[in-house]
Amino acid sequence: MIKIFRYLAIAEGYSFLLVLFVTMPLKYLGGIGMPNKIVGMAHGFLFLGYVVLAIVVAQILKWKFKDMIIVILMSVVPFGTFWMKDKYLNDGSEALEAA
Q1: Within a domain: residue 85?
Q2: Contact partners, residue 5, CB within 8 Å, separation at least 6
Q3: Largest CA distance in the chain
Q4: pLDDT tens digit string along 1-26?
Q5: How far is CA 41 from CA 36, 71, 72, 86, in A?
Q6: Does 81 map to a domain?
Q7: Cβ partners under 8 Å of residue 49, min gap 6
Q8: SS3 labels along the chain
Q9: Does residue 98 sit within a domain?
Q10: What range defines the domain where residue 37 resides?
């Protein structure tokens, strides 16, 4: 489950950056809205999956409530999911390896 969450965090982070730096300028500066609709919908699904899995992983790893909130909030900060993955999921602890 944690491995899936790692991959989902990376995918969600890239989709957020793609929406923010590619499709939004295309929509508002270039008048091309279709890429924003497609990538935006994919980003929305990834975001929802990220939040749900963050709650599940928080229970598996017995995170404090504050840590779970930080992990969830990192999904709305550019590059936040990459930082979160390094800080909370790559510490090499036994709990991560066992789950």
Answers
A1: yes
A2: 50, 53, 54, 56, 57, 89
A3: 50
A4: 888 999 999 999 999 999 999 999 99
A5: 8, 22, 19, 26
A6: yes
A7: 8, 12
A8: CHHHHHHHHHHHHHHHHHHHHHHHHHHHHHCCCHHHHHHHHHHHHHHHHHHHHHHHHHHHCCCCHHHHHHHHHHHHCCCHHHHHHHHHCCCCCHHHHHC
A9: no
A10: 2-92
22 within a domain of the structure (yes/no)? yes
Domains contained in the chain, number: 1
**Residue holding tokens 């929509």?**
27
Other residues' Cβ atoms within 10 Å of the Cβ of residue 6? 19
Provide the angle, in degrees to the nearest 10, between the axes of the packed helices 80-88 and 2-18.
160
Cα distance between residue 69 and residue 79, in whole Å = 16
- pTM higher than 0.85 for the full model? no
